[in-house]
Amino acid sequence: MDLGIRGRSAIVCAGSRGLGRGCAEALAEAGVDLVLNARNADVLEQTAGDLRNGYGVNVTAVAADITTPDGRERVLAAAPDADILVNNAGGPPPGMWSDWSRDDFVAALDANMLAPIAMMQALLPGMCDRGWGRVVNITSASVKSPIGVLGLSNSARAGLTGFVAGTSRQVAPKGVVINNLLPGIHATDRADSLDGGVAKSEGITIEEARKRREQGIPARRYGSAKEFGATCAFMCSQHAGFMIGQNILLDGGAFNSTI
Questions:
Q1: 73 and 21 co-located in one domain
Q2: According to the model, what pLDDT value does residue 146 have?
Q3: What backbone torsions phi and psi does residue 168 show, to the nearest 5 degrees?
Q4: How many CB atoms lie within 10 A of CB 26?
Q5: Mean pLDDT for the chain overall
Q6: In this structure, are 213 and 99 located in the same domain?
Q7: At what angle do helices 206-214 and 189-202 cross, to 10 degrees?
């Protein structure tokens, strides 16, 4: 399928590995020029080179922490008129409700709610003026089904979801489409970290922890970054213009619901 976005420009945050890289690869394959952001400059440059060589698109690498004002300023300076924005940032650490202080919540809100909102506020005016834009916020399946040990993530991502619910409908008449993409467990560093935590606390191997988690997924496996990226690219395409303010769950059927 021709996604109809060849020659467009996109910012992909936290795009050097994992789900962010999956999104960047799928957009590059569709012919989109990229501003790729991540904190680790070495990994970022390697990914940027792979995408340039593999797909023949322009890729600008900006090593910066997107959760900080300075980091966002540097990324936006590289693509002030981006047509597509993929908001993404690593999730806060797991724990129990009694572990977290106000500072922990503020850090989670900065990373997973306020930073993506700031990116949208910076880019939406230009998208509206040009009459076309796409924003995909990578949030979490925990928005629909909260995960007890991820209370910081549950809280911050739910706040972002509320912002998108209203904002997406305000900008839709201008041809700007905002949606959220909610990953369940995918085979990424984040899954390895969570499985490692379970393995340590329960005295089992990481492989055993993973197999146990897979049994709770009807698909009986973790998702891949490639299939996640393909879904993201479709949501950024010309074919997604009637998809407004939706929360698209990609979790192998783990969330059990009729509607």
A1: yes
A2: 87
A3: -60, -35
A4: 24
A5: 95
A6: no
A7: 110
